[in-house]
Amino acid sequence: MCKDLARGVSGALSRLILEDHELERLLAGEKAAWDRFVARAAPVIFGAVRRRLEPAGRLADAEDVAQDVFIKLCKSDYRVLKTYDSARARFSTWLTVIASSTAIDHLRRLKKPADSLDVVPEAELSVEAKEPAWLKIPPGLLSPRQTLVLELLYQKDLTPAEAGEVLGVDPQTVRSMHHKALTKLRAHFSEETEG
Q: What pLDDT was estimated at residue 112?
């Protein structure tokens, strides 16, 4: 049965090309165009949905999710369908992405919601208060200005603009010195942990 379905889906993919005039008819809401479209697109949509739902053990939801894909395409004056661009992808590829994302959204909605903070005992929410431990920066690793920038930003909790005023430099200069200091620190401490 799976081989038959796979053969049917691959055959449907090769036939599922949407010409501009067909898209115009769909967007105009022509019933005959929609009937042809549904007949041709259903195997592609169902196959994409099935591939997402089967590993999660939710294959029974496949028909409902496939229906949701068609609803998504029509909803809000065909907003999603209007996003198709033949220059960016084949229609079958685009439709497979839409169907897959709809199935993923369906699986996310099924996940158990997290407990409300109101029902979690306060003892489980408490965190031991700790003072931040400042890094011991080896002398000479950073320039005096880089060290001062780090002190102003992290110990004095100043913004780059405020630190720039203290130093008499542009805030972008503060950001640049900050970046260079962090780069040196990362390099130093990554060597230390590797060695």
A: 67
* 110 class by beta-carbon count within 10 Å (0-12 exposed, 13-18 middle, 19+ buried): exposed
Going from the N-terminus, what domains does the chain have, and what CATH number goes with each? 2-110 (1.10.1740.10), 135-194 (1.10.10.10)
pLDDT in tens, 67-103: 999 999 989 888 988 888 888 888 889 999 999 999 9
Long-range contact set of residues 63-71: C-beta below 8 Å, sequence gap at least 24: 64/106, 65/99, 65/102, 65/103, 65/106, 66/42, 66/99, 68/102, 68/106, 69/45, 69/98, 69/99, 69/102, 70/38, 70/41, 70/45
Chain position carrying tokens 């900050």: 178
Say if residues 181 and 131 touch (Cβ distance below 8 Å): no
Please give the pLDDT value at position 136: 74
